[in-house]
Design a protein that fits this description.
This protein is an alpha/beta fold. It is 44% helix and 14% strand. It has eleven helices and eight strands. Helix 2 packs across helix 11, helix 4 packs parallel to helix 5 and helix 9 packs antiparallel against helix 11. The structure holds zinc ion (ZN).
Length: 295
């Protein structure tokens, strides 16, 4: 099975009401952990690359490592560029063997978001690559969700959240041709200082009209019961990053504080952080109902 188109992975999740985990993975260690944990649990998995990790020549190292990893396992895997901000980056990823890209023009006004998303679809679809776009805006930061709205210029300040308007979903999907839609229903990127409160009624309305599968960003730290409710109402892909780095960094800090040995072998230093990160991945796969769904 191994490498499977993005839209196939998401279609199965939507039809059978589970969410595929997309782990943003920064290096070979994280890539390998994601495919091996998914394989152990019989779960499809999406390997996400965030732009800082695939700048310049890093893209080739990342893509080849991920393609190699995907071929070592039996479960469906696809490579996804997360949060690209421009079309050339999307094309580079498509040419390096990615199955999908996310173009994030969600901070721009509706018409500009449509234009940017449609442009990327036109560019990469001849290569068989699918596109995810975001409608509404999932903010970044350390606070809980708040419906901040737009400034007078129409641009969003960093940290502002705009909930997805169910009335614009059909038009956005139709005019752009994207394969999946990231929605803003109350999550935030990063870590929470207060638990988010997802707008499940809004999600239900979006899912009722949406012709394409829905994606939840800012999954890290969102309480399990709310994630399960979101999956029941149509979320087919959930993005996780902060909880992975938090699990790894916490163990690394504890190890170095205890050992105080700066020449310790890298493989030894990384052992407990890697195990903690793998546990965090496994926990998400179980929580999303994705375990055992590979076929
Ligand atoms: Zn995101």
């Amino acid at each position: 099975m191994s490498i499977v188109p993005f839209r196939e992975i998401l279609a199965d999740a939507r039809a059978r009401k589970y969410a595929v985990p997309m782990f943003d993975v920064s290096n070979t260690t994280m890539i390998r952990a994601a495919v091996e944990v998914a394989d152990e649990l019989g779960s499809p998995v999406i390997l996400g690359a965030i732009p800082p990790d695939v700048e310049g020549a890093s893209l080739g190292y990342w893509a080849n490592s991920a393609l190699y990893a995907a071929r070592q396992v039996k479960v469906p895997v696809c490579l996804h560029l997360d949060h690209a901000t421009n079309a050339p980056d999307c094309l580079r990823a498509a040419e390096c063997g990615f199955q999908s890209v996310m173009i994030d023009a969600s901070a721009k006004p509706f018409e500009e978001n449509v234009a940017a998303s449609a442009e990327v679809v036109k560019l990469v679809s001849p290569l068989g690559v699918d596109v995810e776009a975001e409608l509404g805006h999932v903010a970044s930061g350390i606070t809980g969700a708040a419906d901040g709205g737009r400034s007078e210029s129409g641009a969003l300040k960093d940290g502002d959240t705009v909930f997805t308007d169910p009335d614009s979903v059909v038009e956005f999907a139709g005019r752009t041709g994207v394969a999946a839609l990231a929605v803003s229903i109350g999550t935030t990127h990063g870590v929470y200082i207060a638990a988010p409160e997802l707008d499940i009624a809004r999600l239900r309305e979006i899912n009722r009209v949406s012709p394409i599968p829905l994606v939840l960003h800012g999954g890290s730290g969102t309480p399990a019961d709310q994630l399960r409710a979101a999956i029941a109402e149509g979320i087919a892909k959930i993005n996780i990053y902060s909880e992975l780095t938090a699990a790894w960094n916490r163990e690394m800090l504890a190890f170095l504080r205890e050992r105080r040995e700066m020449t310790c072998w890298f493989s030894v230093v990384c052992r407990t952080p890697d195990e903690a990160m793998r546990r965090a991945m496994a926990e998400k796969i179980e929580m999303f109902g994705s375990a055992g769904r590979a076929r």
